[in-house]
Amino acid sequence: TGFLTLNFKPGHISLNNNNRQLNIGYKQLNLQAALDEKKLSTQVSFDSHDIASLEGQLDINVTPDRALSGYTKLHQINLEALSEFMPQLERLAGKISSELTIGGTLSKPDDSGEIALKQGELLITANPTQLEDIDLSLKLSGQKANVDGNWLMGDGKATLDGVIDWGGDEL
């Protein structure tokens, strides 16, 4: 049996990548973990000034079934702030948000919820065609996801609609 709590005062995290530095100011960063004879329980919360806020909780049974239960909530991850770590991109922008429920087992997770990208922009250094007004949605249910979206590319509009199924042995 054990318990761990980490509560960080407001501050900054500095990330370095190939002489590029990203400073992330945060208002809150809390981590908790507890282990007993039945399960490992974890909780995390993070609130940044510029990048995003994250909240999550996950329980993993230590019994042979290794059952999972929990959730994650990401509130408007600012992709532009993360673009410094992707030198192959000329432009990266948009906001990603999600609310997911986690279930199933470690060997066969069963997630449900939605991940959405709004107001996205993408310009790859090696390709001068800019993608603008990107709106994508991924709706998860069990071992499947419905994906749909649209964006502007040059003078045209593109759409995406489909299903991703990873419930079998192959994608």
Largest sheet: 11 strands, antiparallel
Low-confidence stretches: none
Tell me the fraction of residues in β-strands, as a range: over 45%
Query: Which percent bin holds the helix content?
Result: under 10%
Total count of strands: 11
Shape: flat
* Number of H/I helices: 1
Structural class call reads mainly beta
Secondary-structure element sequence? EEEEEEHEEEEE
Average pLDDT number: 89
Q: How would you describe this structure to a colleague?
A:
This protein has 171 residues and is mainly β. The chain contains one helix and eleven strands; from the N terminus they run ββββββαβββββ. The chain is flat. 8% of the residues are buried.
Write a concise synopsis of the structure shown.
By secondary structure, this protein is an all-beta fold. It is built from one helix and eleven strands; from the N terminus they run ββββββαβββββ.
How are the SSEs placed, and which strands pair?
Layout: E1 2-8, E2 11-17, E3 20-35, E4 39-48, E5 53-61, E6 68-78, H1 79-82, E7 89-104, E8 109-124, E9 131-142, E10 144-153, E11 156-165
Task: List the keywords.
171 residues; mainly beta; single chain; 73% strand; 1 helix; eleven-stranded antiparallel β-sheet
